[in-house]
Amino acid sequence: MPAQKDQWSTKLGFILSSAGAAIGLGAIWKFPYMTGMNGGGAFFLLFILFTIIIGLPILLAEFIIGRGSQKEAISAYQTLAPKSGWSIIGRWGVVGAFLLMSFYSVVGGWVLIYSALSIPGMIIQDNTDYSELFATITENPLIVIVGLASFLIINIAVVSLGIKNGIEKASKLLMPLLFIFFIIIVIRALTFEGAMEGVTFFLQPDFSMITTEGVLYALGQSFFSLAVGFSVMVTYSSYLNKDISLPMSAGSVSIMNIIVSFLAGLAIFPVVFSFGLEPAEGPGLLFIVLPEAFAQMPFGELFLSLFLLLFLFAIMTSSFSMLEIITSAFTEGKQRSRRKVAVIAGSIVFLAGIPAALSSNVLADFTIFGLTVFDATDYLVSNILLPGGCLLIALFIGFKMDKTLMIKEFAYSNKLSTGLYEVWFQIMRWVAPITIIIVFLSTIFDI
């Protein structure tokens, strides 16, 4: 490994940064409304099962590929499988992360704007129509473009500083604050009259509400919320020393992700049901339903500000990883300035994000297969590119990567039995790819 290669300074920094990469829009924005639209508890249970059985093993696979190669996403597969076509997985990941960030940053801009407005108390006002407020913000081209640009400027600034001084320091500060804010909001949400109705909806499975498309969404949600499929975690783990257990780290990140998704449900559904609101609101759940609910409670503006800041912290730690995989692909092993590449990459993402940002206004009537640019990009990334990337990674582990290297990376700094390695390997070789293919086919043929 080149001496100048940046590294995580501590195990905690790596875990918090990896958890931050995983915990973002997937856990706090997308998970609640996907759960609300797909039957509540049944979707949550499927999400947990997919996360443990498929998502966790793939997360561990990305860790093993990254540290085993000591390279960023594209070079990792070129190093482990030279003179082969497997490097397409890394390129798939960089392109996927780019597309994901192009619409992800739009939502980040919305949250940044809402956060800025909530701190001086400008959101919760008498007789405010929150649907109209959301429309006013998202349908104003100038506002959404400024929000998009501001969000990306913050990302560029952090990623330009590198792994140890940028992403790790930011994650060590933001992730503990995220959990603290979450616990405060959950405690407040559970004190409302009728809160248990929301808890029941969230935790009591009703499989009659699940469709084959809902199963695909649950699978895609498990990948989206763990940030697997685009080799983001390959890049993150390439900065990791050998004295850290990869299985334990993957387990820690997965557990933290499930806990945050659980807390998101407990923070949102009790409030929604207590105030007679609609859990299947969709993407506007956090921007329309929750402000309306917070407006009806004492100190509502304070709790709304806390929630929006929590949301902003989660989105940022996740978006850092997306810009990092793009930046590292063009800087590692090359005589290029990280700052310059981060600025260029962020600027290109900004340009690519403009059509998604304008999907609620100027380009509202422009559709792709009946979907706006924003929704089409979301669907492509979440339900095609992410599962497709996970399928390719599973096949690479199961049929191409050197088994001796995998066993070494699996066994470093832990006392897990070789039997557990074999279980993981068989999941990657057979269970993960077969499950992904079956879910895809069942959705295509509406089985």
UniProtKB/TrEMBL annotation:
CDD domains registered for this protein in UniProt: SLC6sbd_Tyt1-Like
Alphabetized UniProt keyword annotations: Membrane, Symport, Transmembrane, Transmembrane helix, Transport
TM helices/strands, residue ranges: 12-31, 43-65, 92-113, 142-161, 173-195, 215-234, 255-277, 297-320, 341-359, 379-399, 420-445
Family: Belongs to the sodium:neurotransmitter symporter (SNF) (TC 2.A.22) family.
Pfam families: SNF
InterPro entries for the chain: Na/ntran_symport (IPR000175), SNS_sf (IPR037272), YocR/YhdH-like (IPR047218)
PROSITE patterns: NA_NEUROTRAN_SYMP_1, NA_NEUROTRAN_SYMP_3
Record-given protein name: Transporter
Topology versus the membrane: Multi-pass membrane protein
Subcellular location: Membrane
Source species of the chain: Virgibacillus natechei
